[in-house]
Structures are given as C-alpha cells and as structure tokens.
Write a structure and sequence with these properties.
It is a multi-pass membrane protein. Belongs to the sodium:solute symporter (SSF) (TC 2.A.21) family. This is Sodium transporter. It is found in: Cell membrane. With about 500 residues, this protein is mainly α. The chain is about 80% helix and about 0% strand. The chain has a single domain, classed as Sodium/glucose cotransporter (Up-down Bundle), CATH 1.20.1730.10. The chain has helices spanning about 5-30, 40, 50-75, 80-105, 115-125, 125-135, 140-160, 165-205, 210, 220-230, 245-260, 265-270, 280-295, 295-305, 315-325, 325-370, 375-400, 410-435, 440-460, 465-505. Helix 5 packs antiparallel against helix 6, helix 7 (about 140-160) crosses helix 8 and helix 8 packs across helix 13.
Length: about 500
C-alpha cells in the first residue's frame, strides 16, 4: 500500500511521464517519413547530427545496467566493482576508436550495410553468414528483459507501482514510438535521454557531499565507512563475485573492449552520414561514456553504508534516492533512470527487428514467397519494413512474458545475452580488418563454434563466471576462424591446381 508521500510522488512522476510520453511519440511521428524504407527504419543514415548520434551511442551503452545493475554490484561487493566502471569508459572507448573508421568505410560497400549481419555478409560475400548472425542477435531478448526488470524495480521501490505494471509501461511505450519513427525517433530520443542521464549521473556523485559528508575527503570517508562495515568491501578483489581474481577482472576488460561490437552499437556507426563526421561522433560518444559510466556507481557504495540490509541489491540506487533526495530531485532522477532504460531498450528492439526484416525476411523468406511474382526491390523493401514492425510487437510480447520472473541479478542477466553474441561475432569482425586470408568458411565456423561454446560453458555450469566463459569462447572463436580460413584457402588452392592439371591433360 502506498504511503501519502509515495502517492504524491507517484502523481508528480506520472504527470512527468505523460509529458515525456507525448514528447517521444511526437518524435516518433516526425520520424515516420524517414522510416518507410528499410534504410530509414534501421539507421536513418545522414538524417541525424553526428554529435547526437554519439550521445545516443553512450545512452544505448549505459542502460539500466550502469544506473541500477552495477550500483547493485557495488552494494553487494564494494569497491572492486570500480574495475568494471572504469573499464566502461576507458576500455570501451578505445575499442570504439579502433573499429569505427574501418567499420564505416566497409559499411559503404555493396550499396551500404544497414545492420551488423549485413555488414558481415557483405564483407565475406555470404548470405548464410548474414542469416546466422541475425539469428544470433535474437539473444538480445535477455538484454531487453534486463531493461524491463530495471524499470519495474525502480518504479516499485520509489513510488510503489507494482512490478508487473512497471514492465507493461516500459514495453508499451518503447514499442509505440519505435514502430512509428524507427531509427530517427530512436536516435533523437536517445540523444535527449543521454544528456539528461549525464546530468543525473553527476548529481548522484555530488550527493555524496550531503549524504556521506567530509568535504574534499568525501571519497576517503566513504572508503573508511565501507571498510568499517566489512574490510572485504574495500579489497582489490571480492570472493564469490564477478571480480574474484585478477584473471576474472582481465576477462571483464575483454568483455568491455568487445562490447562495442554489439549490433545496437555498431548500427550507430552506420547511421553517420559522412566520413568527416566520424571524429565528431567518437568524441561525443566518449564524453557521454565518461559521464554515464563513472559516477552513478558511487550511489551504490553510499547505499551500502547508509541503507544496509536491502533485500534486493538492484534496489540500492532507488532506495538511496528515495531516502536522501528532495521530491524535485527524486522526480528528476527517476526521469533520468527511465531515460537510461528506454534509451537502450529502443536500440535493442530496433536492432533485432531490423535484422529480422533486413537479414532474415529479405534474404530467406521473400525470395521463396515471391520468386515468381517479379516484385521490385522497392516493393520487397517495403514488405521487409512491415515485417520488422510486426516482429517488434511479437518480441515485445515475448520480453513482457519473460520479464515476469524477476532475476537475482540484473547485470548477470544482461551479460549473458550480450556475451553469447560477442563470442560469435568478435573474431569474424576484428580479423576482417587486418587479415587478408579471413574468408567466409572461417567466419561461419567461428560464429557457430564461438557462440555454441559460450552457451555450453554457461548452460551446463562448466564455467559459472560469464566473463571468463566469454573470454574462453572468444579465443576458441579466433582459433577456429584462423584454422577454418586457412583450410578453406588450402582446399581452394588444391582445387585450382587440379583444374589446371586437368586442362593440361586435355
């Protein structure tokens, strides 16, 4: 039952959310004219400013994980979680700087790539690879569920809205404006949300000065209080956590370096209209990553000192905000966290449904359905957009159902889906940059073996540490890619020699 304060807060937040709803639906309607083609629906290429696309990249990256999940880890394990947050900015941005230019340039080949699966398919001249990677991207459903859980947890903790209603709100709102405006609506709204989130992240850090206290020595004071509560909270590593050893932390850094290769993030690179705009995009993305990944974790550490004994670690930041912030700031922070969640969820929905329309329907289904009907390329493209919109509603319903059972850790659920994708695509994507012998046989084998290895290690409990399982699977993927490519090249050379010999005999 809601208290009087929660009732008042619920009405204020409800009014703000309604205004927010109208704003993003308006952007959705504005984007409708750009989303009639598959190109407009999936990347809105050249229609949005590069600095706004960069902010959208950071906003999509951050999600409920950096505002709820990672601070929840900080609440449970203490300062070892800083290994993760520092890597989110430094390591991920390095990864972005390494891959952006080449990825964008290769994305312009063959009339341009609209999705990561199509990019890989074009690079290796393989429709089979394009379809396999598109199917692999469906693992992002776990990432969407993690966002739904984060949104519902925040509403439940701060204003007492039942968990299920929070999930329903998030799914319905996101599907509505993505179905109308496609990539244009997603990029614009994410850009706005990223600015709000950056302000909120800094505000959460500044709150330490009035909750923990100590002036310029606030961080030292916080560390001391954590150490007094439990010395393990300030150790370099934390037993029974994702940060249990130096090797585990190294595996986490590998995850953060390769995280940039996820389709919902690489699609942002493809959205940049001109090559000279890539510098603006990467600088904007880096600045946003810094603000969003660095500061909010300290609210989780402060909550461990000030509000010990929470039943759910993922509720650390919502509980901290509710306890120590005035109503006006609570409303602002709630809107910021809603922005963090929706900015990732919309990119995930868009990436998955664009792949279904562009990489599965156009490549596999449409040629079978219309092989004797002589439809134009434009007609097939419009049908693909329609299929993508239908898939959006179906995936929304599936994520709604999967979100009803609250997971133990939002962050671990998120890492599972993303790691399955990364373990498959990391070798084919990175080796395509600098290894001339990389070919489609090696790429297909690497995607299948890398992703299968990760699912086997985690699914059968062989390796419980998700990040270590990803590292092992990625390394196996590289090995299979190299071996498969060399074997295919050898067989091709052998075949050519035999053909020459046969021609000489004739």
């Amino acid at each position: 039952m809601l208290t009087d304060n929660q009732t008042t807060l619920a009405w204020i937040i409800g009014a703000c959310l309604f205004g927010y709803f109208l704003l993003i639906v308006w952007f959705g309607k504005r984007g409708a004219k750009y989303s009639r083609s598959m190109k407009g629906f999936s990347i809105a290429k050249g229609k949005v400013s590069p600095w706004l696309i960069g902010i959208s990249f950071g906003a999509t990256y951050s999600s409920a994980n950096l505002f709820i999940g990672v601070p929840g880890w900080a609440y449970m394990y203490g300062t070892p979680v800083l290994w993760y947050t520092l890597g989110c900015f430094g390591v991920t941005w390095i990864g972005l700087l390494l891959v952006t230019k080449k990825f964008w340039e290769q994305g312009q080949n063959n009339e341009g790539s609209l999705t990561l699966p199509q990019w890989l398919g074009n690079r290796y001249n393989s429709k089979a690879l394009q379809v396999i990677v598109a199917l692999l991207i469906l693992f992002n459903i776990y990432y969407i569920v993690a966002q739904n859980v984060g949104l519902a947890t925040m509403f439940e903790t701060i204003i007492g809205i039942p968990y299920y209603w929070g999930i329903f709100f998030g799914v319905t709102l996101t599907i509505l404006y993505i179905s109308m405006g496609g990539a244009y609506a997603q990029l614009i709204t994410d850009g706005i949300q990223g600015i709000v989130m950056s302000v909120i992240s800094v505000l959460l850090f500044l709150s330490l000065f009035w909750t923990i206290g100590g002036g310029w020595g606030t961080l030292g004071n916080l560390t001391g209080q954590l150490n007094n509560a439990n010395p393990a909270l300030t150790a370099p590593t934390a037993a029974d956590s994702p940060f249990y050893s130096g090797f585990a932390i190294m595996a986490i850094q590998w995850f953060l370096l390769s995280f940039v290769l996820l389709p919902q993030l690489m699609n942002k690179v493809l959205s940049v209209g001109k090559k000279e705009d890539l510098r603006t995009f990467t600088l904007s993305a880096g600045a946003t990553l810094f603000f969003l990944s660095t500061f909010s974790v300290f609210a989780g550490l402060a909550a461990r000192v000030l509000i010990p004994g929470l039943t759910s670690s993922d509720s650390a930041v919502p509980a901290y905000v509710l306890e120590y912030f005035p109503t006006v700031l609570i409303v602002l922070i709630v809107m910021g966290m809603v922005s963090a969640i929706l900015s990732t969820t919309d990119s995930l929905y868009l990436g998955m449904t664009a792949s279904i329309g562009n990489d599965i329907y156009k490549v596999v289904i449409a040629p079978f359905l219309y092989k004797n009907k002589n439809l134009s390329v434009m007609q097939i493209d419009r049908k693909a957009v329609r299929v993508a919109r239908i898939a959006l509603f179906i995936i929304g319903l599936i994520s709604l159902y999967m979100s009803f059972n609250r997971p133990e850790s939002l962050s671990l659920l998120l890492q599972f889906g993303t790691s399955a994708i990364i373990s498959g695509v990391v070798a084919p994507l990175t080796l395509s940059y600098f290894w001339k012998k990389a070919n489609r046989v090696g790429a297909i084998a690497s995607v299948i073996v890398g992703a299968s290895c990760f699912m086997t290690l985690t699914g059968f409990g062989i390796q419980d540490h998700v990040f270590t399982a990803l590292l092992y699977s990625s390394m196996l993927g590289y090995g299979v890619m190299i071996a498969g490519s060399l074997w295919a090249e050898h067989m091709n050379s052998h075949r050519k020699v035999k053909q020459i010999e046969q021609q000489q005999v004739l």
